Amino acid sequence: MSGTSELPAPVEPGGPAARATLTEPVPAPLGIFDPHLLAACISCGFCLPVCPTYAQTKAEADSPRGRITLMRALEEGRLDADDSTLQAQAGRCLGCRRCETVCPAGVKYGELLEQWRDHQWRGRHTPPVAAALRAGVRVTPALTAGGLVRGAARPTGAADPARPHLMLGCLERSLFPKVSKAVLKFVPDADVPAGQGCCGALHAHNGGSVEAAAMAARLGETMPGTIVSTSGGCAAYLAHQLGHERVKEISEFLLAQWEADPESMPSLRRLTIDGRPARVGLKDSCQLRNGLGVIQPPRTLIAKVADYVELPSAGVCCGGAGTYSMLQPEMSKAVLDPTLVQAREADLDYLVALNVVCTRQLQAGVKRAKLRVKVVHLVELLELALSD
Ligand code: SF4
Ligand code: SF4
């Protein structure tokens, strides 16, 4: 796979461009980015080896550092939003935030990417898939009806602030309705507040961060108190907006609950396949791992019911990344492929996902590669282990 385009030429110290800057007025920044966030990068390149898109092409433009160079060129007016490299790279980044985990300067790449797409993906520059999804997930009644028809957990009425609230998720309630049903077996005191809208994560990652923040605030009002989410991307975004103390992803919630009160943990048997222990791998949710820092809880829970197998690429993006598999199908598959090879080599029985888009992406990849491994959400795996 080759890189998409060239970066703007760097300004050589003492060269003609640098001399020109001494005599020409310096253009004012355009205010697209938070200047402190944009200035933080020291161009060290530590992030390059962990970036999944750079791993595919070894092109600077496909790296975090290269993209920050592009953002700076945009901010300084050296490139505008019509530039083909800018347009390509705004969509080519997975938004996985793996670069943040190794950055010695603490660059908040995820926030920079949101600001970039807010500017870049406006009007005719908006990718049609992103525009359609931004409009589509606003139709809460249709999603609610889809979830009800397909058997998701049924709303219980207005939220009881004293109880934890199960968040149904826009896509998950329709695509994987059994997940919310399974949660209620492990969190029986949870309610399922009616009238849940979208958390806004998808909008924030697709050029609509202002609208997204308003959606998160509305959802927080619908569900005062503790919110439990089964989707890593939703949990991370909502926790960023409402506070991590209020918003818990299901693996961290269950582990904390069972460690604080071991008697609340249901009896779980060890899963077996043909008389041997089941072999189970995990694919982290990028936003959960890199954004919220939740890494160990799902592994600990899987190990309670099966032989846990850590895949070398467990913490690398699956290529699903919100709308990415539709926007960048070729790169999306290339990023996923190493995981499929590793799942085959590890002879996995189950591959656990923690996010609705990851589940879809992994299921499509497993089907394409004709693997026998079954992709399930963590709570579906735990449900299999519930003793009768
Ligand atoms: S590791 Fe951080 S500071 Fe270094 S190039 Fe990457 S983003 Fe910039
Ligand atoms: S968010 Fe992911 S894909 Fe984008 S630059 Fe960072 S590591 Fe690379």
SSE order, one letter for each helix or strand: HHHHHHHHEHHHHEHEHEEEHHEHHEHEH
Q: Which value, in Å, is the CA radius of gyration?
A: 22 Å
**Which class best fits the helix and strand makeup?**
alpha/beta
Unreliable residue stretches: 10-22
Across the major sheet, the strand order is: 7-6-8-9
Count of the separate structural domains? 3
Distance between the termini: 51 Å
What is the β-strand count? 9
Ligand inventory reads: iron/sulfur cluster
> What amount of the residues lies in strands?
5-15%
Shape: globular
How would a crystallographer describe the biggest sheet? Answer: 4 strands, parallel
What level of helicity do the residues show?
Answer: 40-55%
Description of the molecule:
The protein is 47% helix and 7% strand. It is an alpha/beta fold. The protein folds into three domains: 16-124, Fumarate Reductase Iron-sulfur Protein, Chain B, domain 2 (Orthogonal Bundle); 132-264, no CATH class; 272-384, Rossmann fold (3-Layer(aba) Sandwich). The strands form three sheets. A four-stranded parallel beta sheet has the order 7-6-8-9, sandwiched between helices. A three-stranded parallel beta sheet has the order 1-2-3, with helices on both faces. A two-stranded antiparallel ribbon has the order 4-5. Helix 13 (232-242) links the parallel strand 2 and strand 3 (247-249). It is globular. The structure holds iron/sulfur cluster (2 copies). The site of one iron/sulfur cluster has 14 residues, from helix 4.
